[in-house]
Amino acid sequence: MKLVITMSRRYGTGASLIAKELSEKLNIPVYDKAYIEHELEGHNFVGEAEVIKELAEQPCIILGRCASEILKGQPNVFNIYISASKEDRIHRIMEKESISYEDAKEMLEKNDRHRSEYYHEHTGKVWGDVNNYNMILDTTALGIENCASILMKYFERMEFI
Question: Furthest-apart CA pair in the chain: how many Å?
């Protein structure tokens, strides 16, 4: 099966680390906002949805960009949502960006607000609604390092890989 994984996430959850580990284990590429925007600039695509649909013709991981909704209904697509507690996310941002608690909190709130607005604007749906995903993983409870392993075991058991 040509497995396509979409990964929606809250800012500071460590989802990009999970995607990177899955990418290495499955030997498939990860596409993020920067890559998709680069494809838009360099080619004759009408919009992000068209880029995402073309990328999903091959096995891959797509971070954000409403990919779960754009690819909805395709049998080879597995939609994941990554969450974590606000405190955990703030501390992860502080460490990654070398900034204060207050600056990290402000960055988190601004980023979450933008992602929520973007998702609603492009889908008409609520960002993070559990009904939009096949699996939700909480990195605070599970640990970032365990999430890719959980997913790999699930994919193997379901014979997706």
Answer: 45
Domain positions in the chain: 4-157
Identity at 118, one-letter amino acid code:
Y
Identify the three-state secondary structure at position 124: coil
Q: Residue 19, Cβ neighbours under 10 Å: how many?
A: 24
Burial of 14 (0-12, 13-18, 19+ CB in 10 A): buried
Q: With a cut of 70, which residues of the chain have pLDDT below it?
A: 1
φ, ψ for residue 69, nearest 5 deg: -80, -40
CA pair distance 137, 127, nearest whole angstrom: 15
Q: Judge contact between 35 and 137, C-beta under 8 A.
A: no
The closest alpha carbon to 77, from 50, 63, 56, belongs to 56
SS3 132: helix
Q: Give residue 1's pLDDT.
A: 66
Q: Give the SS3 label for residue 115.
A: helix
- Domain 4-157 bears CATH identifier 2.40.160.20: no
CA distances from 45 to 42, 55, 76, 80, 92 (A): 9, 12, 23, 26, 35
pLDDT in tens, 15-29: 999 999 999 999 999
